[in-house]
Amino acid sequence: MTYPSQRADYELPEFLGGAAEELTGAPARPGPKSPGHIPGEAGLWIFILGDMTLFAAIMLVFLWDRRSQPEVFNEAAHQLLQPIGAVNTLVLLLSSYLVVRALAAHRAGRYGSAGHLVIGAIGCAAVFGGLKAVEYSSELSSGHTPASGTFFTFYFILTGLHLLHVVVGSALLLAWNGKLKRGRPWAGVQRFIEGIACYWHMVDLLWVAIFALVYLVSAE
Q1: Is there a domain that residue 6 lies in?
Q2: 141 is a domain residue
Q3: Cα–Cα distances in angstroms (integers) from residue 52 to residues 43, 102, 122, in the given order
Q4: How does pLDDT run across 165-176, given as a tens digit for each residue?
Q5: 107 or 7, which is more confident?
Q6: Is 128 a member of any domain?
Q7: Full domain range(s) for residue 86
Q8: In a domain, 206, yes or no
Q9: Which of the four pLDDT bands, split at 50, 70 and 90, describes residue 34?
Q10: Integer angstrom CA distances of residue 15 from 8, 106, 191
């Protein structure tokens, strides 16, 4: 007795399908679309939540100390260069917009456009760092150091940690641009690129919180 042959209709994962197409020259049959997923990797989100928790803890201690000496904090906050802080806020918001546009361009296979947008975001990071250097130079020349009082201790800790995050984020954006130059398709680097974008948006969000708390609220 013979039985009709049965063949399991397996679909290749997206990255294997691309490899098969490259080796055989035949287009791979597209598999079912994957359901929505959280951008990036789970480990990245653990890091981001931990990082934001650290900043939140420092900000809570800042607010607690501000309650006990509001006049001192108010006077010190007025020594900051608020226009530079405001410009830096706009610069980082622009960089986040460019990152969003770059994601869409990379996903659509427009590597040239995506690369230009990523370079624009890196340029924004450079402007932020340059303005922050000008601000630090002004504060230090005015005699304001981390040892000048509680306010400036918090100021240099928060802004210094954030600037370090900007440097790390810039390195990640450069890595993204490198993948674009090599023409890496979206499917092969999706998690990595989404992780970079999430990290950069966190850097932007942290600065908005720092600017509001240190530059604006403390100066009221």
Answers
A1: no
A2: yes
A3: 14, 25, 22
A4: 999 999 999 999
A5: 107
A6: yes
A7: 39-219
A8: yes
A9: very low
A10: 20, 17, 13
CA distance 134 to 179: 33
* pTM (two decimals): 0.79
Looking up residue 193, the CATH number of its domain turns out to be 1.20.120.80
CB-based burial of residue 42 (10 Å sphere; 0-12 exposed, 13-18 middle, 19+ buried)? exposed
Sign of CA dihedral 121, 127, 133, 136: negative
Q: How many domains are contained in the chain?
A: 1
